UniProtKB/TrEMBL annotation:
Domain named Tryptophan synthase beta chain-like PALP: residues: 3-248
Gene3D superfamilies: 3.40.50.1100
InterPro entries reported in the protein's UniProt record: Cys_Synth/Cystath_Beta-Synth, TrpB-like_PALP, TrpB-like_PALP_sf
Protein name: Cysteine synthase
Segments traversing the membrane: none
Alphabetical list of Pfam families matching this protein: PALP (PF00291)
Organism: Pyrococcus yayanosii (strain CH1 / JCM 16557)
Length: 273
């Protein structure tokens, strides 16, 4: 039996990233300039909250970021810097740090800021535990993507200590790009501090197949990293009560979906599931 935790009910970015962004920003006492590296949802969440709190926000995006993400960030009044980086790695993070320091801005740095991990340990994990208790269940396994590693590391620490829960991480296959998740070579901070039982590699095509499976079976439009989680679950089939973490919905990935469907050629191709 498996359940999915639908994090796209968070209001600002419609993603799990509302949690760490709010936790990182809540102690800023005066209006300021914020610079942040983001491939999508953190940028949207920071842009939305900056609009509410009166900050000026500049988002630094890697080259493969979906166009829809850029449009959404701009709607909130934030500035966009498109870079030539293919992914957010240590070099990209250092680049944004240096830009912020040179221009007198604040870089909250979701990749190293412990407020990221803490938002998920005291928020996401505890909330999930309460949700499972409400239906008389305990998590035997959790399948989650690895991005900054904030949410999967927090879930691992929280649930392994209390329930011995098996934790399965999901990353893109070598040479692949899936918005929201990254390979371990990019050096996610918190992954080395906890135990992950298994890491599953998924291609972008397989992640899209996961998106389509849920759309056509459950009527939910999930994002690409959520689709990757679905595929990883199918590859591993852990026993017992399993929780899949769906970080966001699919609406900002329509351009990417179109490419897989063959829309650019004016034809529709249904993926084989």
């Amino acid at each position: 039996m498996y359940f999915a935790k639908l994090e796209f009910f968070n209001p600002f970015s419609r993603s799990i990233k509302d949690r760490p962004v709010f936790n990182m920003m809540k102690d800023i006492r005066k209006r300021t300039r914020l610079y942040e590296a983001s491939s999508g949802n953190v940028g949207i969440a920071m842009a939305a909250l900056s609009a509410v709190l009166g900050h000026r926000f500049k988002a630094y995006l890697p080259k493969p970021t979906p166009k829809a993400t850029e449009v959404l960030i701009r709607i909130f009044g934030a500035e966009i810097v498109r870079t030539d980086f293919e992914t957010i790695d240590r070099a990209f993070v250092e680049f944004v740090k240096e830009e912020a320091a040179r221009e007198g801005a604040v870089n909250l740095n979701q990749f190293e800021n412990d407020a990221n991990f803490e938002a998920h340990y005291y928020g996401t994990a505890k909330e999930l535990e309460e949700q499972l208790k409400s239906i008389g269940k305990e998590a035997d396994a959790i399948v989650a993507g690895i991005g900054t590693s904030g949410h999967i590391a927090a879930l691992s620490k929280y649930f392994r200590e209390r329930y011995g829960t098996r934790i399965i991480g999901v990353v893109p296959a070598e040479g692949e790009s899936i918005p929201g998740i990254k390979r371990l070579e990019t050096g996610p901070k918190w992954i080395s501090e906890v135990e992950i039982d298994e890491v599953v590699e998924v291609t972008a095509k397989e992640a899209f197949e996961g998106v389509v499976k849920v759309a056509r079976g459950d009527g939910l439009l999930i994002g690409m990293s959520s689709g990757a989680v679905v595929k990883a679950y199918e590859m591993t089939r852990p026993e017992g009560t399993v929780v899949l973490i769906f970080p966001d919905d699919g609406f900002k990935y329509v351009e990417l979906f179109e490419k897989f469907l063959g829309g650019a050629q004016g034809r529709s191709v249904s993926p084989v599931l």
